[in-house]
From TrEMBL:
Pfam families: PhyH. InterPro entries: Phytyl_CoA_dOase-like. This is Phytanoyl-CoA dioxygenase. GO terms for molecular function: 2-oxoglutarate-dependent dioxygenase activity; iron ion binding. It comes from Paractinoplanes rishiriensis.
Length: 295
């Protein structure tokens, strides 16, 4: 199992917390080293190549790959689950009783024909955005987006966001998704280099733009939430696979590991037996001023 050297754990800063609360996202530069980029990019492009073969997973009509369950698909990506520079934003915001409930890898090569108009703007979470009653709705989850290709210029399928929209339940839009409609006022295409990270609140209104450039867009996305929220990823078979033995305890927790007889379970009633709680406690990072980090 791939394990990559990474810096000592540290919490997100107060300034980052203020910015995240204001904008609904953070762009963090240079999170991954060159070797980490190479490991992840090689694995994902390998999956892309296999998906395009006869009998493979299959590509979309534009030749792109959007495949769920990132680590189940590619165990080589396990180091991204708890990469200290990126993962600190998860436990700093959500605390220690978390897991990955949704993840995917994406490869979007150049599109050669203009695509029909389609309103791609959305908040993550699907039915959460209709069935939760509060205004604004609760955050529920935070997502990490690792960039593994050069999207330092717009027009490369850039992740597009509406800053500050995470506390807005509804975004004015077309009567149906196929009706031509301008992007929201203030929309921003995020530019990033390989190894950069975007951390975002699932409520942030966002969209993927089309890639008409010759640069293939490659990324890996991990959504984290509390363990009492059911997952979408297919990880049920992991404990029986040889690769599972190579994951560290925190990675196992993030992939749904619980109920090992020590008392740990998804409701978090036994923090002392929860791997991430122990990892944070060992490092003196349980800050009682943050509700999610209180035992």
């Amino acid at each position: 199992m791939t394990q990559v050297e990474a810096p000592v754990w540290a919490p997100m800063t107060d300034d980052e917390r203020v910015q995240f609360d204001r904008d609904g996202f953070l762009v963090v530069r240079g999170v991954l080293s060159d070797s980490e980029i190479e490991i992840a990019r090689t694995a994902i492009l390998g999956a892309f190549e296999r998906a395009g073969r006869p009998g493979g997973h299959g590509l979309t009509g534009t030749g792109s790959l959007h495949q769920l369950s990132a680590v189940t698909t590619l165990p080589e990506l396990a180091f991204l689950l708890d990469h200290p520079i990126a993962f600190k934003y998860i436990w700093s915001l959500l605390g220690w009783n978390v897991h990955v409930y949704h993840s995917h890898i994406d490869v979007h090569p150049q599109i050669h024909e203009k695509q029909k108009d389609w309103w791609h703007w959305h908040q993550d979470g699907g039915r959460q955005n209709r069935e939760l009653e509060t205004d604004p709705r609760p955050a529920m989850s935070v997502k990490l987006a690792y960039w593994l290709s050069d999207v330092s210029e717009t027009g490369r399928g850039n992740f597009t966001v509406l800053p500050g929209s995470h506390k807005t339940n509804w975004l004015p839009g077309p009567p149906s998704r196929g009706v031509p409609w301008p992007p929201p006022e203030g929309a921003l295409q995020i530019t990033a280099s390989p190894g950069d990270l975007v951390v975002f609140d699932r409520r942030l209104w966002h969209a993927r733009s089309d890639n008409y450039s010759p640069v293939t867009r490659v990324g890996a996305f991990f959504g984290y939430t509390w363990r009492w929220i059911a997952g979408r990823d297919d990880v049920a078979g992991l404990p029986g696979r040889p690769e599972w033995s190579g994951f560290n305890p925190v990675q196992r927790q993030l992939l749904g590991g619980a109920g090992d007889g020590s008392g740990d379970h998804a409701w978090g009633h036994y923090p002392e037996t929860t791997p991430l709680y122990g990892a944070l406690k060992e490092r003196g990072l349980l800050d009682s001023s943050i509700p999610a980090l209180i035992p």
